[in-house]
Amino acid sequence: MNTQKRTVIYVSDGTGITAETLGHGLLTQFDNIEFKPVRFPFLDSEEKVRDCLARINELSRREAVRPIVIMTQTNSDFSAILHQAEAFFIDLFDAFIVPLEQELGSRYTRAVGRSHGHANPEYNSRIAAMNFALAHDDGVSDTDLKNADIILVGVSRSGKTPTSLYLSLQFSLKAANYPLIPEDFERGELPSRLQPYRGKLYGLTIAPEQLQRIRNERRPNSKYSSLENCRYEVAAAEKMMRREGIKWFDTTAKSIEELSVQLMQELELGR
Amino acid sequence: MNTQKRTVIYVSDGTGITAETLGHGLLTQFDNIEFKPVRFPFLDSEEKVRDCLARINELSRREAVRPIVIMTQTNSDFSAILHQAEAFFIDLFDAFIVPLEQELGSRYTRAVGRSHGHANPEYNSRIAAMNFALAHDDGVSDTDLKNADIILVGVSRSGKTPTSLYLSLQFSLKAANYPLIPEDFERGELPSRLQPYRGKLYGLTIAPEQLQRIRNERRPNSKYSSLENCRYEVAAAEKMMRREGIKWFDTTAKSIEELSVQLMQELELGR
Fold first, then answer.
1. A91-134 pLDDT, tens digit each
2. Sheet containing B248-250: which strands, arranged edge to edge?
3. What is the model's pLDDT at position B111?
4. Mean pLDDT score, B203-217
5. Residue A50 CB-density burial (10 A; 0-12 exposed, 13-18 middle, 19+ buried)
6. Distance in Å, alpha carbon of B49 to nearest chain A alpha carbon
7. If we measure between CA atoms, which residue out of A220, A227, A226, A250 comes closest to residue A238?
8. Which among A15, A68, A137 has the least Cβ separation from residue B261?
9. At the topology level of CATH, where does B4-116 sit?
C-alpha cells in the first residue's frame, strides 16, 4: 500500500495544544499515512474564524482528499461557522463538553487559556517544578534536595535529564537528578549528599550498547564512550543500586513519557 | 456555590498522557469543581483490566458521586470490561477511532506506545531538540547556533529557558536562547555572535514589576533584582530589539504554551 498523505488542521480559540496532543496520539497509530500538520490557534473573533474557514476550504480544494480538522472551539457560534468547512471533523467540544456539563451539573465557563495562565496556581507550580529540575540537573546544586519529590540517579547519559524535565512539565514534580560516576563506584558507596534522601531515590539504567551510541555522539572515540567503559559503569551502577535497595528502570526501550508515568506510579504507590 | 470534588481516573493501555492532557484541558474550565486525578496506565492484560475495574467501582462506592473515567484503551475487549464500571466515561477511542478508520480507509493499528518509542524518528528528533535546547540555554554554547530553528533573546529571567524547552519538547524545534546583558546595552549593539542569525532571532520582554518579583526570588535585595535596574534593562532591551528589527513578545501575562504557539505561528509565516 502506498503512503497516503493527509493534511491535519488544528483549530482552537486557545493554543490548540490539547487538540494537537490528542491528534498526535490518535494519528500516529495509522502508520501507512503521512500527516502534515497546519495550525490555526487563537481564533477568538468572527473575522479570524471566517478567514480560517476560507483557508480550510482552499486546502480542501487543492488536495485530492479533504483535510482532517481537530478542533477545540469553545464559542458555539464560531464552531458552527467552522463546521461549514469541507473537512472531516474531530470536535472535542461537541463530543465531550455537553455530556460533561450534564454530569457535573455545572457550566463549562468557556474561558480561554484558563488551563495555563499566570493566575493559575497549577501553572505556577509547574513552572516552579521546571525551574527546580533545571537547577538540580546533573547534581549541579544540592542545596535543596530535601525539597525534591524525586531524585533520579544513574550513569551519565542514562536518560536522567529528559526524564526529570518531563516529570516537572507534565506532572509538576520537583525532580532532581544526580550522576553516579566512576569515583562513586571505586569508593563503593552512594554519594554522601544523597544518603539522607534514600526514600526518594530511583535509578535509571540502560543497555551498554545503547549508552555507547549515545555517548559516542557527544565524545567520539573516547574512553568515556568506549563499550568496555560503558559496560563497566552500567554493571557497577546496577550493583550499587541493588546493594542500596534503590529501585531502578531500564530506559533502553522506553520513551521518557513511559518512564515518567512509571515513576509517577511508584511515587503514588509509595504514598 | 460550594466547591464540588470529583475523582477523575485516567485509564489507558499506554501511558495515558493523551487522556490526561485532554482531561486537563477540559476539566480546568469547570472552575467550581476540584478534580482529584488517579492514574491507571499500561493496562495491557485482562488481569490488570479486571483489577482496574474493581478499583474504579471501589472508588465509586466510597464517594458520593461516581468518578469520571477518561480512557484511551485500544483493545476493544478490555474496553468493554472497563465500561462495566460505575462511572461517567469519556472514551476517546469510541468517539473518534471508528469514524477516523472510515475516513482514512485504513485500520487503526492498535500498537501501544508507537507515538513515542525509540524506533520512532519523530521521538528521536524531539529528544535531540531537547538536548539542543539544554546545550544552548542562556548562551552557554554558541558553536552550533547555525543549526538552531529559532534563537530567543531577552534579559535574564524574561522567560527564555522555559519557552525554549517547551518549543523543543512540544514541537521538536531546536530552540536556542541567548541573554541580553547590560554590557550589550552599553556597547549599543547585539552580541556579535548573534549577528549572523538575525533571521531566526525573536525577543521576549516582560513588565519590569514582574521581572523584579521573579529576580527577587533568586537574588533578594540585589541590584540585579531592583525595580530601577529591571526598568533600565527592559527599556534598553526593547530599544535594542526595535532598532535591530527583532520582533518581540511580552511574556508578562502569557503562559509558555501560549508563547510557544505564537512563536510557531511566526516561524510558519516566515517560511
1. 988 899 889 999 999 887 755 444 445 556 777 888 888 888 88
2. B175-179, B150-154, B201-205, B248-250
3. 58
4. 95
5. middle
6. 16
7. A250
8. A15
9. Rossmann fold (3.40.50)
Domain range list for chain A? 4-116, 121-270
Mutate which of B12, B29, B269 to disrupt the A interface (most A C-beta within 10 Å)?
Answer: B29
One fold for B4-116 and B121-270: yes
Cell 531538540 locates to: B129
- Binary contact (B4, A104; C-beta < 8 A): yes
Single-letter residue type at B230: C
Q: State how far the Cα of B241 lies from the Cα of B21, in Å rounded to an integer.
A: 36
* Region B235-256 average pLDDT: 94
- pLDDT tens digits, one per residue of A184-233: 999 989 999 999 999 999 999 999 999 999 999 889 999 999 999 999 99
pTM: 0.82
* pLDDT more than 70, % of chain A: 93
Per-residue pLDDT for A4 more than 50? yes
- CATH number assigned to the domain covering A121-270: 3.40.50
> Which residues in chain A are contacts of B10 at CB distance < 8 A?
none
Q: CB of B3 within 8 A of CB of B32?
A: yes
On chain A, the residues whose CB falls within 8 A of the CB of B18 are 21-22, 24-26
Instruction: Determine the residue of chain A that is closest to B39 in CA distance.
Output: A265
Contact A29 B96 (CB under 8 A): no
Quote the percentage of chain B above a pLDDT of 70.
93
CB A74 within 8 A of CB A100: no
B176 Cβ partners below 8 Å, 6+ apart? B132, B133, B136, B137, B145, B148, B150, B151, B152, B164
**Does B103 sit within 8 Å of A88, measured CB to CB?**
yes
What are the pLDDT digits (tens) for A123-163?
788 888 888 888 888 877 767 899 999 999 999 999 999 99
List chain B residues with CB under 8 Å of A264: 39
And the C-alpha cell for B248?
518581540
ipTM above 0.85, yes or no: no
Which residues of B are less than 8 Å from A261 in CB distance?
A: 15-17, 39, 41-42
Amino acid at B256: I
The distance of B191 to chain A (nearest Cα, Å) reads: 25
